Amino acid sequence: MRRFLGIAVILYCFIATPATRETYKDIIHKAQTLTLQQDRLQAAQVLKRAIENESSKKIELELRKALHEVTTIFYSEKGQSIFEYGRSLFRASPLEAQEKLSLALKEEPGNITVLVEQARLSLFLGKCEDAEATTVLAQNINPYEEDAALLLSQAKACLQKTEDAIESLKKTEQSVYAFVVYAQSYLQKGDVAQAQSYLNLAKLADAQFPEIYFWDLQIKKKQSRAIEDSVFQYVKLCKTFVTKDFIKYSKEPRTCQEYKNIEIEFKNLLEAESKKET
Question: pLDDT (tens digit, 9 = 90+) per residue, 195-219?
Fold first, then answer.
């Protein structure tokens, strides 16, 4: 009987003693260990579950920072080198860039940095469905990555999924890029006033971003308003763009993509303005 009571007490103590709860630092360490083992997807899953169950905003930010690190880190110099080379070919040779980025992803499975660049290249090439699919894949790995959230809204606007684009934009940082996509989406919906209001916000954020004037031109054409100022501003800015400017505005890969077309379309108008200036 005494022996039975002794066993019962031990069992009670074992059951009643709460298990030691993992701290967020333990979880981050576990994810980092998995990363060292090159298990990016499992590391991301560990951190995502922790973020979903975390109530402290401060700790959640720490977990998100760790998630960003494990999903963007390059495992090898080879993978990073291929990626950097592919990115350098973005505008000069986009099809070759596409090939190199695919090779980089084979070396670095699940790397958000590579996936984001692939999605941007797809947008640049006008492959909107590919851009959307690649961005969704990136968000499945890390749903908190800001660049991927912006890209998803850009891809959806490109596909004229206007409501989805607007909904996606609500989850992004309110930047000049987001304001321009808002304007594009509302213009697609036929809400010209709302489109113009977002372009006004874009101008306040960064009046040197050429795409503001491209979409301003589209709005004015829709309203049968004078377009000269928008045409001149767009062409003028794009004409002076150099590599560092494209890098600065790389979050919108289609920056100045319509420059030559606009220049040809409004050749007479631009020539007349040029004569006035001389």
Answer: 999 999 999 999 999 999 999 999 9
Looking at the fold, whether 185 and 253 belong to one and the same domain comes out as yes
Q: What is the CATH number of the domain that holds 250?
A: 1.25.40
| pLDDT exceeds cutoff 90 at 124 | yes
Q: Which of the residue ranges 7-11, 63-67, 145-149, 171-175 would you say has the lowest mean pLDDT?
A: 7-11
Model pTM score: 0.87
Q: 15 lies in a domain?
A: no
pLDDT in tens, 14-56: 444 455 678 989 999 999 999 889 999 999 999 999 999 989 9
* Tokens coding 150: 């912006």
* 17-25 LR contacts (CB < 8 Å, sep 24+): 24/50, 24/54, 24/59, 24/62, 24/63
Q: Considering only CA atoms, which of 199, 194, 201, 192 is closest in space to residue 224?
A: 192
Cα separation of 231 and 214, whole Å?
A: 7
Total of domains in the chain: 2
Mean per-residue pLDDT over the chain, rounded:
90
- For residue 67, being part of any structural domain is answered with yes
Which residues are CB-neighbours of 218 under 8 A, at least 6 positions away? 187
Residues whose CB is less than 8 angstroms from the CB of residue 206 and which lie 6 or more positions away in sequence, other chains included = 176, 212
